[in-house]
Amino acid sequence: MRFILSFLLLLFFSCEEKKNEEVKPNTIVKNSVLNDDSISRRSNAPLCINHLIDIVQSNSRCKELILNMKIQNVKYAFQIDSTAYISRTYPEDSLKYYELTLVEKHPTHNRNAAFYKFDPFSKQLYILDMVEAEYIETDCDMKLIDIYKKICQK
Length: 154
What we know:
There is one protein chain. The chain has helices at 2-14, 27-35, 37-40, 45-57, 60-71, 142-152; strands at residues 75-82, 98-105, 110-119, 124-129, 134-138. By secondary structure, the protein is an alpha+beta fold. The protein has a 5-stranded antiparallel beta sheet with strand order 1-2-3-4-5, sandwiched between helices. Helix 1 packs across helix 2 and helix 4 (45-57) runs antiparallel to helix 6. The protein starts with a helix and ends with a helix. The model is unreliable at 15-42 (pLDDT under 50).
């Protein structure tokens, strides 16, 4: 399932977009998730991904980066690198957090602007500190996390 999501995201990143289109932050992730049949069978999956992106966008550093990209007329997107998965058969293989990357989309290349990790079980958002090469706790809107938990964790 991760392979299919990654493939669709890669396919969507490689597509050419119109120059006069307004920047829409969630377009790539929304379209690729909605087109993935295996994920869309779970009714809340696209909605949960959108809430997850909203949580990351509520971060002050993310807002600052997105504002700078808009000023420079650079498109951006979110890439979902891993999703939370609880394995009943092999608990040690379980992954309890989501990893997202904020990507700048230039005409000739893409650049990773920031790396985020969201742990829905502890209600924490982390950002990667490039100097220390470790995730540090960062701010986000707790109301969005509560909405996420109501809708996506039943």
